[in-house]
């Protein structure tokens, strides 16, 4: 079913969303075309692609892609689909190679995606040209990077990457600056988890400050029942993280939510609250701070380390936590299926224990055994069940805080305990889905 501009506009009001936005295949297909088929999507980090031959498997929307570093040092973002009979070309998540060889009939491609060899070449017609574009891997027309974060777009036109990121560049800057030498290394391993619900539910939850005390109450209870017993393996970090979801409504009101144009958003001031305050004695932190002060000077180091922006959502597929050096990529698979890939960074030049803390944070938050992520995934699936089983008159609400939002300097809004980030996501969504014709 083709969706007209009027049909799309009728699905979202300033304070409500129609259920089909989360469940309908035609809506999902149009999102892949008009959002994921056009905007800048994060695809890889430069630390994964330092040497010629390095490659990383990634996704652009629902399509499987490869990012390669070729022998000329150039980055290529190529569709991971053999041009012979369409088989997935590469099944590894990352590695190093000079040629990519298909596992079906052995067609062989170079790192720029050009076909370089076919078995039994003499059987092909005289006009068969290995170097014709038809036989080359499809290429994302635009690739750019910002401080080591590589993005690609399936559209030839559109805003520059810097304009697309806008104020979210600050989240990337802060993460990179937390290395005393301004360099990050992405962890080799990743957690890959799927949940059975729509991709937008992940983003709506990212800066929702009301749900943690409800959805995560079981792990809060577990943390409360255990005394603080820091060990060399944990340092009390897990307990502190679980308890972090126990903020009272009053405390969550102290955390401001910044909702920006383009659907981006973040939480501001989470560490101002007492539960996540730093410990009195923390030798690892002291050593790291000393290294940072030496690298940047006292004032700048303090600015970098005290920037308090949490869950930085770069709409529509990336989430960054600069304080704990985390990265999360969100890939739509189907209207009711979403893949989340989570990793963390090593800050080059920082004490190794800082990396251990990032790994622990990643494990606590994003592993299959996480006591936090499982709660969220379960609630997304409940929403999906409820919305899938509803009649066509079912609308959901996103009005909390609508009358309290204050303008944020430079665009967007700021206020506490609000659903403004969700409203901002839908404003961007409508703009993309109607090609700007919604206004
Ligand atoms: S499908 Fe790849 S070589 Fe045949
Ligand atoms: Fe949550």
UniProtKB/TrEMBL annotation:
Domain Rieske: 41-152
Coiled coil: none
Keyword terms, alphabetized: 2Fe-2S, Dioxygenase, Iron, Iron-sulfur, Metal-binding, NAD, Oxidoreductase
Pfam family of the protein (one): Rieske
One Gene Ontology MF term: 2 iron, 2 sulfur cluster binding
InterPro entries linked to this entry: ARHD_Rieske_2Fe_2S, Rieske_2Fe-2S, Rieske_2Fe-2S_sf, Ring_hydroxy_dOase_asu_C_dom, Rng_hydr_dOase-A
Entries under Gene3D superfamilies matching the protein: Naphthalene 1,2-dioxygenase Alpha Subunit, Chain A, domain 1, Rieske [2Fe-2S] iron-sulphur domain
Family: Belongs to the bacterial ring-hydroxylating dioxygenase alpha subunit family.
Protein name (Swiss-Prot/TrEMBL): Ring hydroxylating enzyme alpha subunit
Organism whose genome encodes this protein: Pusillimonas noertemannii
